[in-house]
Amino acid sequence: MTYTAQMLDTYPAEINLEHDRLSHVIDALTSCAQACTACADSCLSEPADELPRLARCIRDNLDCADICTATAAVLSRHTGYDARLTKAQVEAAIQAVKTCGDSCAEHSDQHAHCRLCAQSCRETERALKGLLPLLEPSGKGAQQPHRAAPQQGM
Amino acid sequence: MTYTAQMLDTYPAEINLEHDRLSHVIDALTSCAQACTACADSCLSEPADELPRLARCIRDNLDCADICTATAAVLSRHTGYDARLTKAQVEAAIQAVKTCGDSCAEHSDQHAHCRLCAQSCRETERALKGLLPLLEPSGKGAQQPHRAAPQQGM
Amino acid sequence: MTYTAQMLDTYPAEINLEHDRLSHVIDALTSCAQACTACADSCLSEPADELPRLARCIRDNLDCADICTATAAVLSRHTGYDARLTKAQVEAAIQAVKTCGDSCAEHSDQHAHCRLCAQSCRETERALKGLLPLLEPSGKGAQQPHRAAPQQGM
Amino acid sequence: MTYTAQMLDTYPAEINLEHDRLSHVIDALTSCAQACTACADSCLSEPADELPRLARCIRDNLDCADICTATAAVLSRHTGYDARLTKAQVEAAIQAVKTCGDSCAEHSDQHAHCRLCAQSCRETERALKGLLPLLEPSGKGAQQPHRAAPQQGM
């Protein structure tokens, strides 16, 4: 469906991560960002007496959308890979989908868009948590960040 | 695969666009943004003697990624819909995928990532061009923007 | 204050726009994006009986923030400049700050954050409208996009 | 100059952080995002024999721009504040400006845009590190995230 997996396969240098897993994480993040943007907007169109209790949910949606988009971009780049940066951003994304998933889960019974968005957040959280231990340990990375791309010898 | 179509179906007010078509456009945009981000990075990892001729392609990739992401977000919102804004942003996105698709097409024979990215740009261009005439004419919109969401009467 | 003007002055090729004007536009856009993000959030924290009438304002804030951010990024790039793309994105931004400025202006008396945000939108609209006629006409650009950067001869 | 400080002062609920410090951090982040976007583009327009050694710098610029933009947005929101999320994203931003500042610093003698961008990254790093200890400890936040906004009792 998406080009993510194909783009990984045509990257002109080595990527030290399983392509299938990585493309799954990126797709989960972009899909979650869209779901969060749409959920925030759906909340805004709920009836007036419902809207106030959705304010925190909207805020969490907006943070989650911004953070998932940034994280998907970081994970889509492999030139001059720095494990410390990737790790820190993946950890922030795990917290963002956790916070947003929890907020949406509180409204899952009343609002189908919150139920779907919570589901997307949980899937993305699982995908990110599966990726995290595979990222180079920050201790090693801090010494000598791995450079996947051919410009390293220049 | 993505939640886009389901999120449209659970929006709590009316959306004056065919859901299938709209979700296809949004998915094309988010997929194209990712392909462009990945293509820019793949270009950066090409051999030193190849890189200079890819500078414009990288620039076009970056613009296209930013514009597709913003356009997908705009199209994911339906509360207080303003046809003039949607139309103007869709037109900018059509130009962005055209410019980037042309740049990548120049390198399609040498670089598989450019070939894939050009393909994603062309698909997104077709999807956006199919949507454009269905957006309310700006003349009418300028007078009285359609408000899809229930807050209009407040 | 910001680095925008200094970054323009150190760009290694020619930029066919007055640096002062361009840096003013970019700064207006990034400032407006921040104001819109903050205004959306301030609206979310207004009292429950006030919130429903702010739903459209929040939506317009979110669109405006996304579009201003993307437009600032496009205007910050000069390599392989394509006037058609820049023009289309600037036109979309003019509509975004117009739509959002109008929404916020409706609430300027009740909410100081809306008053400030409307002011930022109007300033940005003026700055963008001052830039628009200086961008190369799309007709000429369509034939042969101007390429400011040194890679054009490659 | 920017509206950041004024927007904080008109937020309709309490913000548990010094406004001056917070607006300084947000302004540093948006300014750094712009500098990084511009530096990546300036690198792309350097002469062909210079470009390959800038590939990693460009990549770090792009990550840093994306992460600074997302972090500025998160810090601009106060409704339903979750310290764990803010902390994790600020930590990711500290790493992003560190990585990018280091990359740009390697080229500061040859390229004025890299020197300026490194300077912006270092300033932003200092600002973020000054903010980090003031964010509520994640342990406490994990139990019972502080909710600044009035919707908490709903």
UniProtKB/TrEMBL annotation, chains A, B, C, D:
InterPro entries: Csp_YhjQ, YHJQ-like. Pfam families: Csp. It comes from the Bacteria. Gene3D superfamilies: 1.20.1270.360. Signal peptide: none annotated. Residues 135-154 are annotated as: Disordered. CDD domains: DUF326. This is Four-helix bundle copper-binding protein. It comes from Actinomadura keratinilytica.
